[in-house]
Amino acid sequence: MTTTFAPFSNLATAERAGFMLTRAEQLRPLLREHAGANEESGQLTAPVLAALHEQGFFGMWTPADLGGAELDPITSLNVLQSLAEADPSVAWVLMATSLATGTAGGYLADSAVQQVFQGDRFPVIAGQGTRPGRAVRDGDGYRLSGEWSFGSGIKHANWIHTLGVVEGTGEALIFIVPVEKATLIDNWDVMGLRATGSIDYTIDNLFVPAEFTHPATTEAPLRGGSLLRLGIIHLAIIGHSAWALGLSRSMLDELGQLVRGKAGRAGSVADSTNFLATYGKAEAQWHAAHSLVHRAWQDITASLNTGNQPSHQQKTLARLALYNATWTAESISTTVYHAAGTTALRSGSLQRNYRDMHAGTQHITSSPSVIEACGRSLAGLVPDSDWLLMQLVPTADRPTS
User: Fold this and answer.
1) Is residue 18 one of the residues assigned to a domain?
2) Are 68 and 223 in contact (CB under 8 A)?
């Protein structure tokens, strides 16, 4: 199956990876230039949004069958880290919307894909897959109602990806609906990640044909390669891991630049043994977190490339690496904020990144329950269990679709 917009369709896998990495690097000056304006407007500015479309970034995880880049996990980590170093909000929007767009392309029926993936650019699909709405079976579809929060990037979206649970069966489905069928509530008044525009939305008794749904936990794509066998949650884990690494890398680099600029002046922290030890420790923490994330995903990629699904141990380590990356990044952000003094207090990238980091720690993927479950698994206390999203459940209770 092909679509009208297929910028990567004639490129081999390695070429797609190289193109996206280069494009991410080339985009960074624009993202830095507009980071303040993005935050001020509570959404991405027109030049940033246009650049993301023109370079095909919203198709980052879209199946190659549909003209997407279908990036492998390691390239995905590198691309999103690069963008997060320039503007964490842009990387957040991109990981959320690319996930929803890519999985729609991988899991929806052909008839729905033909409607969603048409036109002269990739669609933007945004929404939320953790807090469910209510769905009632109605003929060849469902009636969907609910209230959802955290629709990152939804102001730029054509379609909404949203979770609903079917009454009577308890089946959890992702519904893909036109954005104009929802009521958007412009209430994103927050400390950080303001430019993501992660507003609330509601849907009331909307009929959704069955072909515009797919199981929320499916790992069985109808098109695409091994990437789409990861399922929604593992793409999210890749995105959040890269985001934390990119933001903290940016803060460390900016602090280094700030200190170098003041070296030689009386009282400069560049002459402080305490500061130098603190900075060295932060660098060690960052590189350790980066290595754990990449080792976890290299192992998973090797399994996928041999036709296997990730093992329970590999899934656990991916979650452990994300948790570690997030809270290492939070620690680094605090270290940098204190070391930068009044520079970080004032408006600018250090202050903005510090606030963005502390908004990002509130995401469910890095909650205390995650590290507790990882500890339980690694200690061998739950031998007959598997991961369902970010929770451990008895293997027999995990959906197989």
Assistant:
1) yes
2) no
Residue 390: helix, strand or coil by DSSP?
coil
**What range defines the domain where residue 33 resides?**
13-116
CA-nearest of 210, 214, 208, 217 to 182 is 208
Whether 80 contacts 242, CB under 8 Å: yes
Among 169, 185, 215, where does a domain finish?
Answer: 215
- Domain final residue pick, 92, 116, 140: 116
pTM, whole model, 2 decimals? 0.96
- Relative to beta strand 125-138, strand 159-166 is parallel
Residue 7 lies in a domain: no
363: alpha, beta or left, given left = phi > 0 and alpha = psi -120 to 50? beta
d(CA 83, CA 26): 10
- Side-chain-facing half-sphere of 384: CA atoms under 13 Å: 3
Across the 401 residues of the chain, what is the mean pLDDT of every consecutive 10-residue run?
A: 66 88 97 98 98 96 95 98 98 98 98 95 93 96 97 98 98 98 97 98 98 97 96 98 98 95 66 92 98 98 97 98 98 96 94 98 95 97 94 87 65
Number of domains the chain is built from: 3
